[in-house]
Amino acid sequence: MKRINILCLLLFAGYILSAQNIAATDGTSPVTPKFLYKFDNLTYFDNRAFSSPYNSSVTFFGDRLTALLGYGIKDRVELYAGVTAMMPFGKDYNDYKYQPMAYLKYQQNFNTGKDNPYVDKINLYFGILPYRKIKMVLPGFIRKGSIEYSVPNLQGALAQYELNICDIKKKLLLEYVVDWRKIATATERDCFGMILGGKYSIYSNHFDYENFLSEKDGYADFGFIVQWDRLGNNLDTIKNYCDNIVMNVFAKIDFAQLYWNNDKADNRNLNKDFNIKTLFLQAGYLGNFSNDNLTINNQWCHSIVVDCGIQWKIIALKNSFYVSLNKDGNLMLLYKDYPSMFIADQYYQASLYNKTELSFDLIKSSFFSLKAQFLAHYVPDYKVGWQQKITASVKF
């Protein structure tokens, strides 16, 4: 395996060194590869006071730092290597974790320029890279928020395709993720996850070219996301496998953008005066397939998820509601026996779960952000769980 990795790196190095000629053959001016860098630091305080059996009361307080050095042609071919350091405050230095990182990014742009009705691109990532490279928002039933403190990186591959239809303000995004979390040993079972997602967005005709090509959602979004987690064998005694598949289909409408889309100039100016950035409603179907070839055989759970929220200036209020349609089923039937195969929020073991979040974007820029959040978690038969969270992020 090491020899294969070294061979891949050597082949890529040869490609990088010849990148100038490659750039010249596709009709563009030759571009010289350069040294690149990325720095990302997250300081977090996350205090949780829960009373249900699904999550425990705990305080996360620490720092996560990622430093990367790279070489290549920016937004074309890039190779990065570095380290992610996870440093919980108040613990011994031996409790700090350091994860080496190395990944290759290849980006291919098509039909660039304001005169083209279509602008599309492909991004390919291979290696150990941040989960933050995924453009779609991963909800709690896919990936819990606190895992960012301890497992911020995926190990595998990420493929993205984005099509921007500029003349009618439509956008299509497709993403595919492979994350190999554990390899089989004499004592450990292999575990991997795959995510396939897509989103079709409709934008206001008043969006200018730059805003349309940004990462903002449209006033109407239709999408899906599927995650498959598999826990396999080890090399010694365990010879069974487990599967957990989560499927979500959703539709979202943002009334603030829809109001902005109105052709009446006074309505557009009124929306500017109110300064409402988003006022959305999202609803969808959520299905879960669980299979353990020793105990649970092909069991399905069907549920409904509804999200709504509003953001005014720096203040945002959001509510997420989930309810199972099965009498005794939930999304995480295998969690009690095999918790290592899940990276979702444990609250989705309940038959009903509601989360309300009040957040304040105290500072938000491309370089530094400071955010405060207050959350309330409700499941039947237990007291409301409270959570206070402050995060400060620096990136360049």
Give your account of this protein's structure.
The relative contact order is 0.12. The protein has 2 domains: 32 residues; 363 residues, Porin, CATH 2.40.160. The longest helix has 16 residues. It is globular. It has a 16-stranded antiparallel barrel with strand order 1-2-3-4-5-6-7-8-9-10-11-12-13-14-15-16. The chain contains 6 helices and 16 strands. The model has no long low-confidence stretch (mean pLDDT 83). It has 396 residues and is mainly beta.
Layout: helices, strands, pairs:
Elements (H helix, E strand, L loop, with lengths): L1 H16 L1 H7 L8 E16 L8 E16 L3 E12 L8 E14 L7 E13 L16 H4 L2 E13 L4 E13 L8 E12 L6 H4 L7 E12 L10 E13 H6 L4 H10 L1 E17 L6 E14 L2 E10 L27 E13 L3 E11 L6 E11 L1
Antiparallel strand pairs: 1-2, 1-16, 2-3, 3-4, 4-5, 5-6, 6-7, 7-8, 8-9, 9-10, 10-11, 11-12, 12-13, 13-14, 14-15, 15-16
